[in-house]
Amino acid sequence: MSFVEEFAKGKEYERDDGGCAVTQTRTVKVAVVGASGYTGGELLRLIVGHPKMTLAVVTSEKSAGSPVSAVFPHLASLVPFSFESLAPEAIAARAEAVFFSLPHTKSFAPVAACLTAGKPVVDLSADYRLKNPHSYETWYQTTHPYPKLLEEAVYGLPELHRANGFSRLLPDRGDLATRSAGSQGTRPPGCHYHRCQVRHFGGRQEPRPPLSFPGGTRIRRGL
Asked: How far apart are CA 223 and CA 214, in angstroms?
């Protein structure tokens, strides 16, 4: 079992030299592929603030060779290295898990390469969201080159898919196609319908304090 799988299963301990259980302090080394866009920038911000993750590789084809601070000045002190070109084998050698933030249809091959190298993947594009390759072709007007990976992927909505346990491929929830074509027999939500869809399928709602935004809008936390 890899460290990432142990991490996912909550095994956050190790043995010291005396045989006693001690707190696990090691973090997961992660890569962000396609990090120069808006979503990639948000991923970087969240990862560098996460206590269980360490950023190891950041790629961008259009910004390769440029410092991350040239695109995201607010991350200058947090991500003090440069964008690299996408090289799945090199990424797999340096990272334990990989986040993809590439345009649709661009994640097919590099996701497959990272999975072949034994690295779990979270893909934010639409490339692995649908379970049925025929539905994928209908919605995205292209044939999916890795239909077996579509079968393996577990849609990124844990409230509905906890029973699937650890998966090495997690496509992020998203667009109209996923709401219409569904995933694993359900109609998963798009970006803006998470709460109402989870409630529809019996997801648990717990009261939480309201969230305030700078503009003065107040909403109540959902999940």
From this structure: 21
> Is 152 in contact with 129 (CB distance < 8 Å)?
no
Look at residue 88 and tell me whether its pLDDT is greater than 90.
yes
For residue 72, which amino acid is it? F
206 has a pLDDT exceeding 80: no
Q: Hey, which bits of the chain come out as E strands?
A: 13-15, 21-23, 28-33, 53-59, 97-100, 121-123, 169-171, 210-212, 218-220
Active-site amino acid positions: 191
CB distance 157 to 188 below 8 Å: yes
Which amino acid is located at 130 in the chain?
L
Which residue reads 């649709």 in tokens? 104
Write down the pTM of the prediction.
0.72
CA atoms within 13 A on the CB side of 203: 20
Please report, for the domain that includes residue 163, its CATH number. 3.40.50.720
Cα→Cα distances 2→20, 60, 120, 166, 197, Å: 22, 27, 10, 12, 33
Residue with tokens 């969230």: 211
Q: What is the pLDDT of residue 169?
A: 82
Q: Where are the beta strands (DSSP E) in 70-164?
A: 97-100, 121-123
Total structural domains within the chain: 1
Triad 45, 47, 49: Cα angle to 5°: 75
In a domain, residue 195? The reply is: no
Domain that holds residue 42: 23-180
The whole-angstrom separation of Cα 154 and Cα 166 is 9
